[in-house]
Amino acid sequence: MSSASASGSSSPSAPNRNRAAMLAALLATMLVVGCQSSGPAPDTVRNTGQTAPADLQLTCASAAATPLGVDSAAVLPVSSSQLDAQTFQVVLESGGTRANCVVDTSGNVISVQKV
Amino acid sequence: MAFLSQSRGRAFGMKMAACLALGVAVFATLAYAAGTQIFDPKTRKWVEYDRKKARSYYAAHQQVPEAFRRQIVKFRTAEKPGTIIIDGNQHFLYLVQPGFTAIRYGIGVGRDGFGWAGIVKVGRTAEWPTWTPPAEMVARDPNARKWAGGQPGGPDNPLGARALYLYQGDQDTIYRIHGTPEPWTIGLDVSSGCIRMNNDDVTDLHSRVAVGAKVIVLMQGASLYKGV
To answer: Structure pTM?
Structure first.
């Protein structure tokens, strides 16, 4: 009985072990594939400065023209920095007068303040 | 109306004099610690994209990384098509196109102390231009000395296949957008303030741009600057 029992208990555990091993291998493969696909593409370049994209800087320049009382063609973005994942601050200059602008990644101007 | 701003450094005195002569406002920026990095698929790490890396990448691929190759991108702006936007921090030059798009080109820009910003225009253009080094460059660079009288256009000329001369009003700013015999330098901070492109790209840009086109050069540097 005991041997039969042992035999009976070992017989179903072998396929279980095989299934567990296959599952572990599958998980490991998924992890490897997952890691590979989550990283940057090879030869991707980045700049560590995190300045605002050029079009967002120009969006702020247009928005600052009215509070600065000048034509938008005369407003130059002179610096920018990332505030958080969704917003950038852009400093604008025209004829010695400055303004601060906050713009989000979708191009929506959140605020413009003459300094 | 238009004005120039310029980063700190060795060229400051020389270019400030030029800028003041033009009657423009000048600003100095503080040090800018940012740099370009490239993702290395072998080590799976970001590494500095410096002269050595750029040269080895170009030797292996015969072209610059994909980001610095000519391509159409989305670009939300009220600027008119034909306007040139230069983002020296990211090493991109945008030529505004209709429909909120732009042609984006990779560029090489001024090294530390040679960056500048301003709103200028294309005053004139030239094919296979002659390069005449400014007196200050002749004084500091022995290699430039032999060309003090002008180097004829050609494949070895530092200005490459085309040059777009940047003017403020009727005054030549001494800055140019030009080609280069060193295409691997695209994506680097290498120049004395000029904007360099590979010869195919500057030829393409030259064919699309009219004299008088507005050029916006965004500040190359960090968020701090001081008025002068």
So the answer is: 0.79
